[in-house]
Amino acid sequence: MNLRLTSSALALAAMTAPAFADVTPEQVWQSWVDYYKSVGYTITEGSRDKSGSTLTVKDIKIAGGAEASRVGLSLPEIVLTDTGDGKVKTVFADHMTVDLSGTNADGKNYELPATLDMPGNSMISSGAPEDMTHEFNYPTLKVTLTTVTTDGKQTPLPVNFALLDSTGTAHLAGGATGKYDYDMSSAKLTFDGDVTDENQENVKFAGSAEKLSTKGTMNLPGKIADLETELGTALRNGLAMDGAVQIGPIAATFQFSGKDENDQPTSGAGKYEGKGFDGHIKMSQDGLSYQLGSDPVSFEITSPQMPMPIRYGFDKASLDLQMPVSKSDTPQPFKLAYALSGLTLGDEIWATFDPEAKLPRDPASLDIDVTGTMKVIRDLLDVPPPKADGASDQATDEAAADAATDQAADQSGDQAADAATDQAEADGMDDGMDGATDEAQPEEEPSPFEPVDLTINQFALKAVGASIQATGALKAPESGDMTMPVGNIHAEYEGVSALIDKLVGMGLIQQDQVMGVRMMLAMFAKPVDGNPDKLVTDLEFKDGGQVFANGQQIK
């Protein structure tokens, strides 16, 4: 179930690190109201009562988000107390409800109720209206799901998440057009669930993660009606976000049951263990970047219906993706880097195709580092406004009828104009039929990117005793695009010939196919003097689409 919950996540985050406050309870409450309004939410209160230094607000409701992902929060009570030293203590009701609704990725309406429990929570706020700091302490943050309703059909969804011993600070300077930063640490995350879908396939899972920390900053551009649908506009107006998360050791188990494609019972179990990972995301008008890193991971799955257990693991993995998001005629930089080291497979997997252990089983690795520039022909994060069904087709049909009428009137007078109108209306009906076909098989939207140049800083693959390394640079010709690039690529190979021999000996490559494989290899690679097991390839791409390999034209 893929739910678009951008607004929902923002609302929950604000609830768990909120209270944009001042030194009096009234200012604390008002600043919170102003904040939610600035990001397009509505907030109402049932009543408020001031008794001495304590302000109590009851029956609070917060609602907002896009039509495709609405969020509503209901809080029985918030108590704000002047501590007498220029600070305010805020305590939220231990229990509150959350209602998520909208349209999922399959176009189906959904309703997802949840509860949020925060027993023993407290927050101390200090500062001035234009510069406030908040220190919070949440012994337990527990989110509980029970059901999900999709297109009117309710399905059980017992899933639980809990954060333990969460503390941190949140700071807001400048109000709705200022800067927000936060830093939060939690001792532990636990989760479990028992989910059965409409096909009676069941998955049970449980796990935990240690030592979680999140921190980040956000520059606010001013009032936003709906951040999810106005993200592109907000970025152009100065919205910038920078967040990081770090998680320690993780352990999880799962069991599944159901039926396979032949309607036969199937079941299994598995487990996941990781030493931890970290992530970093940045978003602004200048671009979007994701950086992920993982420490050692191991995974296994077993099933009576499987011929063997599936086990694998790796020592380290990382991803660095940087890309532009704003339209510009000037080329903008991008980057894609991925590294995986220490990849190992279980002996049971090896035994299926190499029972005699003829292939080296050393850990495999992959390293890719590509940079370049590209033009962005449209803003990626702009969400087009919805159009009424048939409105565009109707306008097109009317325009076609008017144009045909005018042309016929100029040529043959009123009689021809009437005939042309009838024909245009008939064409409009045909267009409507075509439109229905197009709706059933929509045309692919053209890519928003136009690559200008590409540099292969590193491509390195090492596995089963062989290795490949490549570097190079390509660019679009002056009168063309990257479908016919200009540039060079240099590649080196080691252990390939020995690997082919072993594959032949294992029967994975037939003897009558070896000659073809070696001939193909000889077309693109040549041996290095003094080292016959090392091969090199120099590819040259020339203007006009010509391609040369080691000086020989192959295209």
UniProtKB/TrEMBL annotation:
Record keyword Membrane present: no
Biased composition range(s): Low complexity: 401-423
InterPro entries documented for this protein: DUF2125 (IPR018666)
Presence of the UniProt keyword Signal in the record: yes
Origin: domain of life: Bacteria
Pfam families named in the record: DUF2125
Protein name: DUF2125 domain-containing protein
Signal peptide range: 1-21
Keyword terms of this UniProt record: Signal
Ranges where the record places region Disordered: 382-448
Biased composition (Acidic residues): 424-447
Record organism: Paracoccus limosus
